[in-house]
Design a protein that fits this description.
By secondary structure, this protein is mainly alpha-helical. The protein has one helix and no strands. The radius of gyration is 16 Å and the shape is elongated.
Length: about 45
């Protein structure tokens, strides 16, 4: 029987255009409101 393997996938989501408040808000709004992203754990065969 094989042991269970755990892993962590880190993905670069880009970065804001600048450190100005408006650019940070725009970046976070786009990042946090994306419906095509999935957070949480998932098992891969």
């Amino acid at each position: 029987m094989q042991g269970i393997r755990n892993g962590l996938l880190l993905v670069n989501t880009g970065s804001p255009s600048s450190t100005q408040t408006a650019d940070l808000r725009r970046y976070l709004r786009a990042f946090l409101s994306g419906g095509d992203r999935q957070a949480g754990s998932r098992a891969f065969p």
